[in-house]
Amino acid sequence: MSMEIVSKQAIPDETKLVLLIFDGLGGLDNEGRGTALEAAQVPNLDSLAGDSVTGFHIPVAPGITPGSGPAHLSLFGYDPLKYRIGRGVLEALGVNFDLREGDVPARVNFCTLDAEGIITDRRAGRISSEEGQRIVNKLSSAIKIEGVETHLVHVKEYRAALILRGKGLGGGIRDTDPQATGKPPLPPTPIEDTPENRKTASVLSDYLTQARKVLADEERANMLNLRGIDLFEPLPTFQELYHLSPAAIALYPMYKGVSRLAGMTVQEHGQETNSDEFEILEKVWNDFDYFFIHIKKTDSYGEDGNFEGRVQVLEEVDALIPRLMNLSPDVVAVTGDHSTPSPMKGHSWHPVPLMIHAEHCRRDIVTAFNETALLAGGLGTIHGTDILPLMLANGGRLGKFGA
Amino acid sequence: MSMEIVSKQAIPDETKLVLLIFDGLGGLDNEGRGTALEAAQVPNLDSLAGDSVTGFHIPVAPGITPGSGPAHLSLFGYDPLKYRIGRGVLEALGVNFDLREGDVPARVNFCTLDAEGIITDRRAGRISSEEGQRIVNKLSSAIKIEGVETHLVHVKEYRAALILRGKGLGGGIRDTDPQATGKPPLPPTPIEDTPENRKTASVLSDYLTQARKVLADEERANMLNLRGIDLFEPLPTFQELYHLSPAAIALYPMYKGVSRLAGMTVQEHGQETNSDEFEILEKVWNDFDYFFIHIKKTDSYGEDGNFEGRVQVLEEVDALIPRLMNLSPDVVAVTGDHSTPSPMKGHSWHPVPLMIHAEHCRRDIVTAFNETALLAGGLGTIHGTDILPLMLANGGRLGKFGA
What we know:
The structure is a homodimer.
Chain A: H1 3-9, E1 17-22, H2 36-39, H3 43-50, E2 53-58, H4 68-75, H5 87-94, E3 104-113, E4 119-121, H6 129-142, E5 149-156, E6 159-165, H7 195-214, E7 223-227, H8 238-242, E8 246-249, H9 253-261, E9 265-266, H10 274-283, E10 290-295, H11 297-303, H12 307-318, H13 321-325, E11 331-335, E12 352-358, E13 380-383, H14 387-394
Helix pairs in contact in A: 4-9, 5-9, 11-12
């Protein structure tokens, strides 16, 4: 359903809602052992399934394999086909950069060029984070562009974010990364030819020319490629839409970035483990009423084809579930942003396991949290954007539609 | 989901996809014996169901009984509520007429008028195909209209297609067939009053006046009625949309016509039986990567209320399934275009049995291909237009949406 309708029905309440995301949760059978969820011993998740309404969700559309950005927008109730968020925007948000309306962020990958300007390494020999930071500082102090602020922010190793800020900038600029070595970087060109887009392309071209000179004496990171260059247009936030005060607990920049888009207060307490994330949840429990907790490794291991790793993460987090339930949340939704079956070593289009626990959730007959058991679930297969309205409804936060 | 989004994600691949359609597949219980699928012995379809993800699809919308044209458009991924294809267009495509953008085709039924111009037989005494062809030739050589080409093509017995070709013609003309004897044919009038539509109506009126004179001495086919008169607007093809090279294997003109609309190469090898169709599949297997195979008789027998006939066709085609599977297709979808329950003797709105077989389809617990067993399927009930995206996804032919 449309976010606008849900927003109109939203009413304030004291209830607390939790969205626990196992990134890449859905799987496929692994050589007869079932999916990772089926092979794992997850007594707490199974028990919660027995006290929930269960099913699946489709993040974007049937057959469509989502990237992490659109998949999370869907979980947060934003139609990912309507709200298109570029990689540059996510990267900038992920490092806590205070993006403003009209900014043009891009993802930066440092790379190595040979004497003829041909890319020999698209990741600059995977330079360390220290070296990456040094390169960023070097560029930041040297590059000046008339009338436009440029902010280069280091992310990790060979990665950074570049943000242009100025009047009349457009978006939709093609990647300069040719996605292969043995080729020179591409010039930044607008996808649609408008004066605003041309201005952005011209500023970026100037930036890259200056950067080439500044980095000429570097051995590895002697150039940079830009990707996902687009105008930032803020989303309406959870506060504005639903009277919610949301918090995000994640380990990775990308997920912090996308939750910041929704207006979430990103928790930065030096967390490094899944257990740390649950500790933060306990710590800030009284300060917010919507909590997004993001578990990354289920996806990473799926991408690596590491079935055992997926099983292990599921079991590890399963043991943390009682800490969540001890807080007596009013609504708990557990799902993934998409499937990442280890036999496919990548994201996939398959529907994602889902359960919603709340006093009035209408429990079904399912008593295990896995791809086979959930087929008998009471939710059936819903669209990802319907999860938030169902959480709000179960939390008593949606008023009656019409008289 | 919108076809445009799926098209943007489409990537080329070598995989081969097969859509096997049993026309009118879905059924209802027949006096306690179950549906035709339940009563039939279909071990190969059952076995394939055990190695597939299964469920149902709804071709147009809940409660809507589709005609064959819209139902097939849906199977081919075109929203039948958006792409309206007139009966005239389908009739012309079905006889291999090379329709071009801007043509106005109509379905022609020869009929018998009495001396007062009242219809006494809407099918002209069911004249033979030889006589139908003679009438068509007679009209074609006699009728001339200034500035507009008219093409009259014989279809079968009392049926033909009339195609107007010329500049500035509109569509949306009301049928001249009053759908009952004892009335005169209706004049061709535009549904919406535009100059283009008026021009088409006027040309058709001229044509009909001339035809009445030319056929005045005929005993049975002394007039013609026009139906489904509309402008032909080509659809975007599978080649354009999905990097597919599609082939259609069917016995009846209507299904050849609708598959030609999607850009399919219609196979014409004199096929007359279901077995012939599988032989053609084997023969052209290396030349295409998407194959639509259409089995007609399940629908014809359903329309006749012939339950045994339906059972027999299902069993006959079931025995041919190994020939399909021996080709090692990457993706096989088996379904119908709509339901045609024999107790109803006609098309119906009921969801249509569906299975999709592929390496990564996420098998469910279903091990039989029938209306009761499929209720436990992993697909649930999807929209007909989602079948093609799922086939593409399972064939590795859809890239990731967003970062």
